């Protein structure tokens, strides 16, 4: 049966382009058997590139190629250059990205192209809602989280520095200050909403490590988390609540360790909260704000035992107390030999 495919060179508006075949090795052992539509489109694309043509038909051709091979970086780069050169309607391009990213969430090229278009538009209106929809498909997709963090930093960081460095007239300064205040209020709401978003995700799946990572980034690494002491106090309450719900959840324990390390807070600060988890006690409240352990929670918590062992090891290292390091074996008998080794190491430098 004859193919119904019509080559570009036979289509109206394309006859002036002479296809340029791919240069393969003269005697290739295993030549790639490209499908005819893809081979023809690529041959035509090479002709466009050779002419350095930026045109609407180039946009049409690159879309056809992208749909056949969304990972082809050169096609994306040429498409972006062409769209900007011919001053195309970039909102329509975002519509196309909305469609394609659903099918290619793990394609670096799709996300990079979207960033290029959004920067050119200088508009954030679609990006946070868009990534929220994308994460509904795959809540742990690295590309989506990385893009969301870029959008937050690019569009919703404070403009205080710009105002401080302003050299404009007084009336302009007043207007600029008013605008900056509005921007700060808007940005503050966005970052507050971001914490609420991570909470929604963790309420659905307390083991969503991506949501925990993002929460840490918002609170401690983005530069927009707020006063560090207040953030630490809030996040300690939050992670305690989640550990009371699921004491053997590695993601929550990693988050706890992460915020303690980031703020140089000793592990022993949490000993009173952690010890009952290690002993299998459901009454763990060490302050009026602490949660009691959920009835459905699995105890003993082996991660609590490991945490207490590390508390002892940290204190032993600080105090060069080999005997105390050896006591870690009582909390973590599975690694008895390891803790005895640690005790010997402490004693050797005491």
UniProtKB/TrEMBL annotation:
Q: Give UniProt keywords alphabetically.
A: Magnesium, Prenyltransferase, Repeat, Transferase
Q: Which GO terms describe its cellular component?
A: CAAX-protein geranylgeranyltransferase complex; protein farnesyltransferase complex
Q: Name one GO molecular function term.
A: CAAX-protein geranylgeranyltransferase activity
Per UniProt, the ranges with Polar residues bias are 167-181
Coiled coil, from the record: none
- Required cofactor names: Mg(2+)
- Going by the entry's taxonomy, the superkingdom of the source organism is recorded as Eukaryota
Keyword Transferase in record: yes
Q: What is its EC number?
A: 2.5.1.58, 2.5.1.59
Q: Where are the annotated segments for Disordered?
A: 167-187
PANTHER family in the cross-refs: PROTEIN FARNESYLTRANSFERASE ALPHA SUBUNIT/RAB GERANYLGERANYL TRANSFERASE ALPHA SUBUNIT, PROTEIN FARNESYLTRANSFERASE_GERANYLGERANYLTRANSFERASE TYPE-1 SUBUNIT ALPHA
Give the protein family: Belongs to the protein prenyltransferase subunit alpha family.
What name has this protein been given in UniProt? Answer: Protein farnesyltransferase/geranylgeranyltransferase type-1 subunit alpha
- Source organism of this protein record: Microbotryum intermedium
């Amino acid at each position: 049966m004859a193919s119904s495919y019509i080559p570009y060179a036979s289509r109206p508006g394309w006859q002036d382009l002479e296809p340029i075949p791919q240069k393969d090795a003269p005697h290739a052992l295993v030549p790639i058997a490209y499908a005819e539509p893809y081979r023809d489109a690529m041959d035509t694309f090479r002709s466009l590139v050779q002419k350095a043509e930026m045109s609407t038909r180039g946009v049409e051709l690159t879309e056809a190629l992208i749909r056949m091979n969304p990972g082809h970086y050169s096609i994306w780069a040429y498409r972006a250059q062409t769209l900007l050169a011919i001053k195309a309607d970039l909102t329509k391009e975002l519509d196309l990205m909305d469609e394609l990213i659903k099918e290619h969430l793990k394609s670096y090229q799709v996300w990079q192209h979207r960033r290029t278009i959004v920067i050119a538009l200088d508009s954030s209106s679609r990006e946070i809602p868009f990534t929220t929809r994308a994460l509904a498909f795959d809540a742990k997709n690295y590309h989506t989280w990385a893009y969301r963090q870029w959008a937050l930093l690019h569009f919703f960081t404070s403009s205080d520095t710009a105002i401080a460095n302003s050299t404009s007239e007084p009336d302009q300064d007043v207007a600029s200050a008013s605008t900056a205040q509005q921007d700060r209020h808007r940005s503050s709401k966005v970052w507050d909403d971001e914490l609420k978003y991570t909470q929604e995700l963790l309420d659905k799946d307390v083991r969503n490590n991506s949501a925990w990572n993002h929460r840490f980034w918002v609170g401690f690494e983005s530069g927009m988390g707020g006063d560090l002491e207040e953030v630490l106090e809030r996040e300690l309450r939050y992670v305690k609540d989640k550990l009371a719900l699921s004491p053997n959840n590695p993601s929550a324990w990693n988050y706890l360790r992460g915020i303690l390390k980031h703020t140089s807070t000793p592990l022993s600060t949490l000993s009173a909260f952690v010890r009952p988890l290690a002993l299998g006690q459901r009454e763990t409240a060490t302050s009026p704000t602490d949660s009691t352990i959920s009835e459905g929670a699995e105890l003993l918590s082996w991660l609590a035992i490991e945490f207490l062992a590390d508390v002892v090891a940290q204190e032993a290292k600080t105090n060069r107390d080999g005997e105390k390091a050896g006591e870690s074996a009582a909390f973590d008998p599975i690694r008895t030999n390891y803790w005895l080794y640690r005790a010997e190491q402490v004693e050797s430098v005491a």
